[in-house]
Specification:
single chain; Rossmann fold; 4-stranded parallel beta sheet
Length: 678
């Protein structure tokens, strides 16, 4: 740290309260943040660690509608699950709050009004989709329709999940409201915008010139945004779930969740301490945001603009964002239940919080995406925690119990190997410290574990069990040094493995030590009694890992066939509406890819009534030669539409599983082309 800071404000991204926490969240945000905060506390620093549940926004209203409960019911449920999971896992927040608290409502409203009264917002009237049946403006996620890029007829108003293209709701072909199923209309609505472009020059100086030492993945993403040019961003939206926009004439409008949520750090600090302002408004406070890569733009560009515009707040000193953690080679997905959920892990692996903390730190996606596998989890537990750390500590304690009645033996004359081994503890402490100061958690953990490797090697090389009968005084020195190494482990690895090091400190009868004590070689005095030792770690057997792999496999199988993981049912339609659809069988005669597109195919289909052209976004799933001669089902009376200059007369029917894989809907037996599907 280049500046002389008196205190630290550390924030961790607010988890969204529409589901539990999984290992991707932990590796990306909460494990590194907790390690860093525990390290600062060991150093005796003044630090507050702030987090809470993010409880507003459209996804929560959608989940509430699906489960037929209120949004408050949803956030209450998941806030409780998330909070308890963090507590049980040892994430040591100073406070874990929520954005539905009264303090937060007041803080966010006051923040908006300060900027509003200073004229910092742009007021713009825009046209947005409106559902006339339910009398409500529609957020992008409440609108579905046909993707103009791939033909997916279930694309959302902000993104097509089949081809991954970002969309505006107005891009959709045949848009429909998820609330009523009706076709929405465009209607004018007033909103307030934060003019990010106004601050682009000062942001470029602050990030690109003054903070070149930020992590390359963070710096690179910020540069990309700035080089593309910033645009005004809406801070309000038409919704009935959220913090009402606190100005006259804003009825039915709430603060956009991206504006509301980061203010949650401020409101949570207010709830924590009456002296909150010194953490937010003094230049001798260092503010650090721990986030995942999907939040970089909000914490490096948007929130700093909000703070700077307000005028009273400090800006973050660093934003050490991580990339994404995958699971068994596949992207973690909550909708597909492809995840390891923290609350389930804590139930199935009781008292093994530190095993997961260790593995997630060792595989942390610091500058690029990384992969978690259960086999690696098992290997790191058995070959590193059990065979290195646990083995060394157990041998040192058991031999002390056996030879010296569980009391720390006196240290006699040391040789060069003894002195070099003790000196190396201080060197490794320095390596841990340097890496933590620079947010290199994987390297810091490795250096910390090297202390355990040092101890293991020291015992293996000195072999006290062979010397006890011939040179007991030498054994006293060996075990005295070994116990000093173990005591150092209780300090140096505390940020990473708090549960394990607490047990180790108890076995050693250690008083509370600080980071300054790490590296000392007299932490245990000769004659001090040790407690009866237990095993710090236990081997994880193959059948335990196989059970977890089978659980994931069942999840994959269920999403391929179970309604529980498929998309929600669309609004009901009358039989008369259904009867209007004319679905016929047809045979594919020829197929060519549409030029200058990645997804589109042009099919010529014999329908029994005619030969017609159909455009379909299936190029990523089928080869032309695989389709020719296939009998398909065709929505024949879909009104023609022109795509890439080619008129499409109909739509072939496909089934899409939770992974996005497409399969043709086809008769199980050959029938005449033009046969009606009823």
């Amino acid at each position: 740290m280049s500046k002389n800071f008196k205190r630290h404000l550390v924030t961790a991204a607010l988890p969204y309260a529409n589901g539990p926490v999984h290992i991707g969240h932990l590796a990306g945000v909460y494990v590194p943040a907790d390690i860093y905060v525990r390290y600062l506390r060991l150093k005796g620093e003044d630090v507050v660690f702030i987090c809470g549940s993010d409880e507003h926004g459209v996804p929560i209203t959608i989940k509430a509608r699906q489960e037929k409960v209120s949004p408050q019911d949803i956030v209450d449920k998941y806030h409780g699950i998330i909070k308890k999971s963090f507590e049980d896992f040892g994430i040591s927040f100073s406070i874990y709050s929520r954005t539905t608290s009264k303090t937060h409502y007041q803080t966010a409203s006051d923040f908006f009004k300060t900027l509003y009264n200073r004229g910092e917002f742009l007021e713009k009237t825009t046209s947005q989709y409106y559902d006339e049946e339910v009398k409500q403006f529609l957020a992008d996620r409440y609108i579905t329709g046909t993707c103009p890029h791939c033909g997916n007829d279930s694309a959302y108003g902000d993104q097509c999940e089949r081809c991954g293209t970002s969309l505006n709701a107005t891009d959709l072909i045949h848009p429909r409201s998820m609330l009523s199923g009706s076709k929405p209309v465009m209607k004018d609505t007033l909103h307030w915008f934060l003019p990010l472009d106004k601050h682009e020059k000062e942001l470029r100086k602050w990030i690109l010139e003054e903070n070149k030492d930020w992590k390359p993945n963070v710096y690179g993403q910020c540069k990309s945004w700035l080089d593309a040019g910033l645009q005004p961003r809406a801070v309000s939206r038409d919704l009935d779930w959220g913090i009402p926009v606190p100005v006259e004439g804003a009825e039915g409008k709430v603060l956009y969740v991206w504006f509301d949520a980061p203010i949650g750090y401020i409101s949570a600090t207010k709830e924590l301490t009456a002296d909150w302002e010194k953490y937010w408004k003094r230049e001798d406070t260092r503010m650090i945001h721990f986030i995942g890569k999907d939040n970089i733009v909000f914490h490096c560009i948007i929130f700093p603009v909000m703070l700077k515009t307000h005028g009273e707040y400090i800006l973050p000193d660093n934003v050490p964002a991580n990339e994404f953690l995958n699971l068994e080679g596949d992207k973690i997905s909550t909708s597909r239940n492809w995840a390891v959920w923290l609350h389930e892990y804590l139930e199935e692996f009781r008292d093994k919080q530190d095993v997961l903390r260790y593995v997630l730190c060792a595989t942390m996606p610091e500058t690029k995406d990384n992969d978690f596998t259960w086999k690696d989890f098992q290997s790191r537990n058995n070959n590193e925690l059990v065979a290195v750390f646990g083995n060394f500590v157990n041998r040192a304690l058991v031999l002390t119990q056996k030879y010296f009645e569980g009391r720390v033996p006196e240290r006699g004359t040391m040789n060069d190997f003894d002195r070099q081994s003790l000196e190396e503890i201080g060197n490794l402490k320095g390596a841990v410290e340097e890496n933590l100061e620079n947010f290199r958690f994987r390297e810091a953990l490795k250096a910390g574990m090297d202390v355990a490797r040092l101890g293991n090697k020291y015992l293996a090389d000195t072999e006290p069990w062979k010397l006890i009968k011939t040179d007991p005084d030498r054994v006293k020195t060996i075990l005295h040094i070994s116990l000093q190494i173990a005591a150092n482990l209780a300090i140096i690895l505390e940020p990473f493995l708090p549960f394990t090091t607490a047990r180790l400190a108890e076995y050693l009868n250690l008083k509370k030590l600080t980071w300054k004590d790490a590296g000392k070689t007299d932490l245990l005095k000769a004659g001090e009694a040790l407690k009866e030792p237990g095993l710090l770690f236990e081997k994880i057997e193959d059948e335990v890992i196989e059970k977890q792999l089978q659980k994931l496999q069942r999840s994959k199988e269920s999403r391929n066939g179970s309604p529980s993981v498929s998309k929600p049912q669309k609004p009901s339609v009358s039989y008369d509406d259904f009867a209007k659809m004319d679905i016929r069988t047809g045979t594919v005669l020829e197929v060519i890819k549409v030029p200058k597109t990645d997804k589109l195919m042009q099919l010529k289909i014999q329908t029994g009534m005619d030969e017609r052209t159909v455009i379909s976004g299936i190029a990523g799933f089928f080869k032309p030669e695989d389709l020719v001669g296939k009998q398909v089902c065709l929505l024949a009376n879909l009104e023609p539409r022109t795509i890439k200059g080619i008129t499409s007369h109909g739509m072939i029917l496909l089934a899409e599983d939770a992974d996005g894989k497409l399969v043709l809907v086809t008769p199980t037996e050959g029938v005449s082309n033009g046969s009606e599907v009823k």
